[in-house]
Amino acid sequence: MTNSPNNLLHSPLDGKNYTSASGLCLSVLENGARLILQLAITDLGHASSVFGIELPATIGGIAKGDLRSALCVGPEEWVLFAPLDQVQAIIGDFATLENQTPHSLVDISHRQVEFLVSGPGAADLINAGCPLDLQSMSVGKGTRTVFDKAQITLLKTGEDQYRLDVARSFAPFVWELLETVAKQTEAEILFSSIS
Question: With a threshold of 0.90, does the pTM exceed it?
Answer without folding.
Answer: no
